[in-house]
Amino acid sequence: MSEKLFVFRWDVDHRVCVTDGIPKIRAICRDFGVPNTFFINVGRSTNLREWLGKGLARSRAKFSDRDAVHLIKKTGWPRFLLETALARPVGLSFMPVFHDMQREGHELGLHGGMDHVVWSRRFHELPEEFLVADVEESYRHFQRHLGKPVGFTAPGFYSDQRVMRLVDRLGFQYDGDAIGGAPRRAEAGGCKLRHWTIPVTLSGPRTIPFLEYHGARATPEPEVFDELNRHLASNDLVVLYGHPSYEGVRESLLRRVFATVVEQGFRFVTMQAIAERLQAAAATR
Fold first, then answer.
1. Run means of pLDDT, 10 residues per run, the chain, 285 residues
2. CA 233 – CA 265 distance, rounded (Å)
3. What is the pLDDT of residue 53?
4. What is the CATH architecture assignment of 5-283?
């Protein structure tokens, strides 16, 4: 990269992301005059059957995770119970909002299939035919309402060569299913594919967003920004990710992040812009 580029990537997985977080993010982006990238979960975000039965143990484990903020803490019990009971879709319920975001210059990509919880909790036991049908259905909905998406991310970063082959076949320009390292050609079975993998460059442990992790750990804010500044100082491309339901509702913190990025000489771009640069550079080699 010939200049310092910054991407803020958002995974819009729950309805509260749209109702509570996205309005604040859009306002901040307007004030700074910058675009962001949002990956939209077209389908539903909660699933009662997955919260009960065999899934109950995992639900309890999430409550005790000290490094992340549990969904119920983000939504509150009343809204969580309501959404679990109604199982309303996320993306399909808010298309006018997403149309407005596209007009504002934001990039919208596809986030998984039609059931976020099933993908997040049982990905490795799902047969390939299920994953293909699931993504193809969400892709059709997205394309019908928002146009052809160029970027894809899997819920919880749960991806493998089955997903990589599918993403490639559907003609995506890139996936965001990696943390750490430089952008690279996606691979499946040891073979290079046509699309790119563009990793998140700064996060907490596992796949926890950087700011959410430090919020869960109650890290003093000066320490958080010391770490962010060190990362900005040592990289020309920085990709930060979060969820509008957490980082998006912390307006003062988010404004300070944006200001810090600008002060460090970075230009905000979308992930699509990064993919196009990568493709143009590859074509000249």
1. 90 96 98 98 84 57 75 86 86 97 98 94 94 98 98 97 98 98 96 98 97 97 98 98 98 98 98 97 90
2. 10
3. 59
4. Alpha-Beta Barrel (3.20)
DSSP conformation letters of 28-97: HHHHHT---EEEE--SBS--HHHHSGGGHHHHHHHHT-TTS--HHHHH-HHHHHHHHHH--BSGGG-HHH
Bridge partners of 209, per DSSP, are 203
Q: What is the CA radius of gyration of the chain?
A: 18
Q: Are 83 and 156 in contact (CB under 8 A)?
A: no
Q: Strand, coil or helix: what is 158?
A: coil
The string of DSSP letters for 161-175 reads HHHHHHHHHTT-SEE
Distance in angstroms (rounded) separating the CA atoms of residues 70 and 73: 5
**Whether this model's pTM surpasses 0.90:** yes
